[in-house]
Structure formats: C-alpha cells, structure tokens
Design a protein that fits this description.
By secondary structure, this protein is α/β, with parallel strands linked by helices. It has a single domain (5-175), classed as Rossmann fold (3-Layer(aba) Sandwich). The chain contains seven helices and five strands; from the N terminus they run E-H-E-H-H-E-H-E-H-H-E-H. The chain has a five-stranded parallel sheet, sandwiched between helices.
C-alpha cells in the first residue's frame, strides 16, 4: 500500500452499511489486499466505547474513538472500513481532518435509504421500540441524522443492489489509485 485509506460508511440503522462493508472487505481480499481491517460500529461500541450512552456528547466521543483507530490504521498504510451511523456531520468532518492530516485518504460513503425502508429491514425491532418510546434518542426517529453534503460515494440502497454499491466503491478507490 502506497497510502492508507479509510472507507467511512455512514447512514441510518438498517441502511446497509455493515453489509456493504463486509462485501467490500471480501472483494479487497480477493484482490490480494489481505491486511484490510473492518471496524463495525456495533462491535466497536461493545469493546472500545462500553458504557457510553446515546447523548450527542457520547455519540461524538464514540465516533472520535473509532476515528482515532481508523487514523492510526491509515497512518500505517492499513486500509480500513468503518461502518458507523455517525449521525453528526461535524464529527465526521473532524475524523476526516484527523485521517488526512496523518497522510491517509478518507472516503465517505453515504449509505442512503429512506427510514421507512430501514424500518422494514429491521430484524432487531429497534425502530418499532423507538416508535413505541421504549428506546430514546434513536437516530432517524427522535434524534437527527445529518447527511453528508458531498460524500465521495453516494449509494441509494433502496435503488441499487449490494453488489452494485460495492462496485461503485471499488471503482472510486481504484480510480484514486488506492488499490
């Protein structure tokens, strides 16, 4: 790797971030990029951010922690894929600056899907619990999601397949000469 990079998947719960990240991980490994790391928001929250709640401050702290790990990986030329709701634009921008300052490439992928479709995909029933008031501060229901203004890749997962979305990302990182 000439340059480390972070592919940052952002979007609502159920939009397809983890699914796209896992497929991209597989595709990169097939190309011989064997050192690619995956940082899934749910997994990282369990280990790196245990005890944090869902206030804006706690969410920002969680994203900055994930961003710090992604920055270290990028700095050491390890490609990494982050899938995290990361609802607030300013914190995503701070993570971008941190990664780029360390010499890495930050690729923001907006995994865009209407909340109604995300609710239909929700196997954990989180949206139903949020609508019933059992879960507070749920992104897209009673807490805001700020979409990126100009992501490097914008994927409408209600309009394209997972394979097509992964190809869009692969085309971008190939065009940038990162793989």
């Amino acid at each position: 790797m000439k340059k480390g990079f972070t592919v940052w998947f952002t979007g609502l719960s159920g939009a397809g971030k983890t699914t796209l990240s896992n497929l991209l991980h597989h595709r990169l490994q097939e190309m011989g990029v064997t050192n690619v790391e995956v940082l899934d928001g749910d997994v990282v929250r369990t280990h790196l951010s245990k005890g944090l709640g869902f206030t804006k401050e706690d969410r920002d702290t969680n994203i900055m922690r994930i961003g710090w790990v992604a920055h270290l990986l990028s700095k050491h030329r390890v490609p990494n894929l982050v899938s995290a709701i990361s609802p607030y634009r300013s914190v995503r921008d701070d993570v971008r600056k941190m990664i780029e300052h360390a010499g890495g490439e930050f690729i923001e992928v907006f995994v865009d899907c209407p909340v109604e479709v995300c609710e239909k995909r929700d196997v954990k029933g989180l949206y139903a619990k949020a609508r019933a008031g059992e879960i507070k501060q749920f992104t897209g229901i009673d807490d805001p999601y700020e979409p990126p203004h100009s992501p490097e890749v914008h994927i409408r997962t209600d309009q394209v397949s997972v394979q097509q979305g992964a190809e869009m990302i692969m085309a971008y990182i190939s065009e940038k000469g990162l793989v």
